[in-house]
């Protein structure tokens, strides 16, 4: 269970990216350095640490961007105070009128919500995520999204059905 900075418990949380990803490049470079020390006459004492820092730096930028733009969180115990955050966009759950059923794999007749605006600042649903159709009050369709879209759909339906 994830606890927000305001002390609220999340009903659903996906961070977008994990900080441990930043360590992958340096760990591989350390492994390469260990192999060079154990087996070869030439050891790249300067090059491998520099490459490790460069990889960690680029990965750090990617993780920060993913956590800012691709994270999803649903907070609140009751419908009145629940908020769905997709990237930087927050939407109170009281604005959600209905959670729509999953899309049927049909190329000839897509559902109306499948071409709706995705929540957040991105132009489309992020890669590796699945859309969840929502109908807002006033009849507007939007697409929420998550890696575990089925669990997000269940959590949203629990709120909307109350």
Automatic annotation (TrEMBL):
TM stretches of this protein: 21-39, 45-66
Statement: the UniProt record of this protein carries the keyword Transmembrane: yes
Keywords: Membrane, Transmembrane, Transmembrane helix
Domain of life: Bacteria
KW Transmembrane (keyword) present: yes
Protein name: DUF3093 domain-containing protein
Organism this protein belongs to: Rhodococcus chondri
